[in-house]
Amino acid sequence: MSPMTAPALSTGIEIHGPLPGPKAAAHIERDEKVTSNCLGRVYPLVPERGEGCWITDVDGNRFLDFFAGIAVCATGHSHPVVVKAVQEQAARLIHAGGSDVYSPGYAELCEKLVSMAPQGSYSGDWQVFLTNSGTEAVEGALKLARFHTGRQRIIGFLGGFHGRSMGSLSVTASKAVQRRGFGPLLSGVTHLHFPNRSHCPAGVDETTWGREMALRQFHEIFTTTTPSEEVAAVIVEPIQGEGGYIVPPDGFFQAIREICDHHGIVFIADEVQTGFGRTGKNFAIEHWHVQPDVICMAKGISSGVPVGGFMAKATMMQWPPAAHGSTWGGSPIGCAAALANIQVIEDEDLALNAVEQGEFLMARFLELQTECDLLVDVRGIGLMIGLELSPKVKAAEWMERCFHRGLLTLTAGVNNIRLCPPLIVNRAEAELAFQVMREVLLEMARRVDVVGG
Ligand SMILES: Cc1ncc(COP(=O)(O)O)c(C=O)c1O
Asked: How far is the CA of 137 from the centre of ligand 1 (A)?
């Protein structure tokens, strides 16, 4: 990324000169000598402090953070309640392996998660296994589905992202670079198309279209490559994250639920990016009134301390002791952070704030769409907002130019910017982010016009 000088646009953002600043540049040089090239950082940013929706870097530049560590910091950076819980737990006990002893906070967090399980025809108990990350949550869920069904095959979706370990990578189908050179992966994985609600043809009923998209594709693979009686699980993100914040049409998940019920297949909802109030619900799959068999979670569960997990119907969780385990999964500090974080989400009604600020931002970007035809799609639910650009310009350029004006966003999918700010974001911050993005996009549009694009 080439350094550019840009004035700060408005109160709050402070950019003191070309980025990266001198301290950041020195740090980056040092870092890149000893760190793996695969890290591929999106910004030359060296954060030093975080508070709420704001990050200050080592040169004192202050950024408005609209990617929140990729949808991690639900309660913002270093929420005082989360900080206090972590500090107190660290002072009492840092380690007690959840697979070895009855680790502090483990049961309390699992009780809390179970109380959040989506309602549906199954009204029995749920049980939880805690991990350190989303990838491990997916890995465990896939193992559980195979164990429970005695079957091997798994169905995923093109554009889906579930992690990078060998099992989770086998169901990930987001970018070729994530898979290139790592085969053979798990055999028996089939990927289907994930429909985008925005592409529902005019005049066609969305629910019928979504349902048809699922039924047709499953019929096709069940009768050709993938016998249904060999399928252990379907794994799906309720809203595709890395794929570009793609919201599927109504009818799609209901049809998948019916197919799974009919064929004895485990329905795994990967809520790692969508969970914990980001879309206005505890879990995004609730928007479609569908109850999965297993839910994978991480990211927003703790706002930054490594903790994840998968929750399954208790009837499935009766695998034998030592069939699965983890040294650090559900660590005392992770559990303390997650419990405090979820408490803040509930006490401050952050799911509602996600809906209100999300609707505000969507409305602003829909207005911008009428002003600028480079913005071809505005979609999302709550504070998961996808902004798709015309191929005439690159989303990466939009992101980079916003960075130099002190706003952090992130690309996703083919040519989209995704916005996933902390759920505590307020109206003034939302408006500021919008203004920065609008100004940059209009600049890009003027250039395209000038060159006759
Ligand atoms: C939907 C989804 N599943 C799984 C993962 C992997 O999670 P982690 O990076 O915590 O291992 C991610 C990460 O972006 C994700 O978005």
From this structure: 9
Domains in the chain: boundaries: 22-65+350-450, 82-347
Distance CA 362, CA 381 (A): 9
Right CATH for 22-65+350-450 from 3.40.50.150, 3.90.226.10, 3.10.129.10, 3.90.1150.10: 3.90.1150.10
pLDDT per position as a tens digit, 48-73: 999 999 999 999 999 999 999 999 99
Give the architecture (CATH level 2) of 82-347.
3-Layer(aba) Sandwich (3.40)
The residue nearest atom 4 of ligand 1, judged by CA position, is 162
Q: Is 298 in the pocket of ligand 1 (CB under 6 A)?
A: yes
| Residue 388 dihedral angles phi and psi, to the nearest 5° | -100, 135
- Name the nearest CA neighbour of 310 among 175, 185, 421, 168: 168
pLDDT at 6 > cutoff 70: no
pLDDT of residue 333: 98
Q: Which of 39, 135, 170, 235 to mutate to test the pocket of ligand 1 (most atoms within 8 A of CB)?
A: 135
Q: Give one word for 52, left, alpha or beta, with left for phi > 0 and alpha for psi -120 to 50.
A: left
pTM of the complete model: 0.96
Pocket test for ligand 1, best of 131, 162, 174, 296 (most atoms within 8 A of CB): 162
